[in-house]
Amino acid sequence: MKLDKFHKDFQLNGISFSSVDELLLYAHDFSDEVYRFLETWFSTDFFIYVKTSGSTGNPKEIKLQKEQMIHSAFATGNYFNLKESTTALLCLHVDFIAGKMMLVRALSLGWHLDVMKPNSSPLKGLKKKYDFSAMVPLQLENSIDSLHLIKKIIVGGGEVSKQLQNKLQDISTNVFATYGMTETITHIAVKKLNNLFFQGEIITQGLHEEYYQTLPNVEIYKDARNCLVIVAPKISKNVIFTNDIVQLISDTQFQWLGRFDTVINSGGVKLYPERIEEKLAKIMTTRFFVAGITDQKLGKKLILLVELKTNNVLEDKQFINAEIKKIASLSKYEIPKEIYFIAAFIETPTKKIQRKKTLNLIDF
Questions:
Q1: How confident is the model at residue 103 (pLDDT cuts 50, 70, 90)?
Q2: Which pLDDT score is estimated for 202?
Q3: Residue 42 near residue 19, CB atoms below 8 Å
Q4: Hey, what domains does the chain have and what are their CATH numbers?
Q5: Would the pLDDT of 267 be above 70?
Q6: Measured between alpha carbons, how far is 176 from 194 in angstroms, rounded to an integer?
Q7: How large is the average pLDDT for residues 294-322?
Q8: What is the pLDDT of residue 54?
Q9: Which residues pair with 176 in a beta bridge?
Q10: How far apart are alpha carbons 128 and 45 in whole angstroms?
């Protein structure tokens, strides 16, 4: 599949191009990262190789069909009503699928795309307004005061905390969490995070802040483990079996409960770390996560890991324990048995916490 053209309305950094060669020449002088992708995109290969983030396992390269990436681009464009001449901001690394797909959407749909060097505060000093952008939670958090510059934002690469979601409620921007992975060519479902009752371009009737809504041409069901199974022939020839435990709300909606490989069986009680963390987020002011470690009596013991350099371990533990007891929604089984402090969590290149590697820092 040789791609030798792009949408006639496509612009990159305010510049229009009459040919692929002209676009590549500009990209070569502008960004090595963007140039390498565009060179591959316009090659004779039917596919490209994409790196996974490595947040739930070892990073790997997978092969994605260009035709399926184009189908994904049109699905996003249709769902969010993003037609030709949409103004969009790319502030993610192009080495990963989310950044690549912003370029594919722009090329395929005829967007006017501006590209900036990725950083944790992409809207700092920005004055121009945009129709659309994609961010990770840290970028969203650091851009709260400037989000009004963008009409619609999708956020991925990690869970959006309840504290951050609360900050979004007074923002005019329509913000959506996304569900997906490299294998699904970014998102196959989205969840509205704010303006749930706002009647704008996006029809929000029936949306729920806890539920993901699938994009068109996506079928979902659960396997014997209660994990989500995805059937989306336009973006993957294979049925995708995930490790994400879900509750199916309807044929097109689901609630994400947690990862199958992180479920903690503690004394015969199944604990979902992600749900516990959602409750703990009410009192935590720094990054944290919970995990299970081997215990003679319980099999697995629930512990809390906090990213904090502290000289007063005992006092800090006592304070956190006292705050935890104030959370009415926590069951007795969901209260961590131990608290450990770590100066800095280990991260992936996309700033996701590498839980297993971070856990290995603790000398139990």
A1: very high
A2: 45
A3: no
A4: 11-259 (3.40.50.12780), 263-359 (3.30.300.30)
A5: yes
A6: 8
A7: 91
A8: 57
A9: 154, 192
A10: 37
pLDDT in tens, 165-177: 889 998 999 999 9
Locate 216 and state its tokens.
């068109």
CA–CA dist 16, 85 (Å, integer): 11
Tell me which residue of 95, 181, 358, 94 sits closest to 103, measured CA to CA.
94
pLDDT digits (tens, 9 = 90+) for 191-224: 999 987 644 444 444 455 679 999 989 999 999 9
Full 3-state SS string of the chain: CCCCCCCCCCEECCEECCCHHHHHHHHHHHCHHHHHHHHHHCCCCCEEEEECCCCCCCCCEEEEEHHHHHHHHHHHHHHCCCCCCCEEEECCCCCEHHHHHHHHHHHHHCCEEEECCCCCCCCCCCCCCEEEEEECHHHHHCCHHHHHHEEEEEECCCCCCHHHHHHHCCCCCEEEEEEEEHHHCEEEEEEECCCCCCCCCCCCCCCCCCCEEECCCCEEEECCCCEEEEECCCCCCCCEEEEEEEEECCCCEEEEEEEHHHCEEECCEEECHHHHHHHHCCCCCCCEEEEEEEECCCEEEEEEEEECCCCCHHHHHHHHHHHHCCCCCCCHHHCCCEEEEECCCCECCCCCECHHHHHCCCCC
- Torsion sign across C-alpha atoms 119, 153, 80, 16: negative
Q: Tokens 């951050």 appear where?
A: 164
Rounded to an integer, what distance in angstroms lies between the CA atom of residue 96 and that of residue 219?
25
Phi-psi region of 268 (alpha: psi -120 to 50; beta: other; left: phi over 0): left
pTM > 0.85: yes or no? no
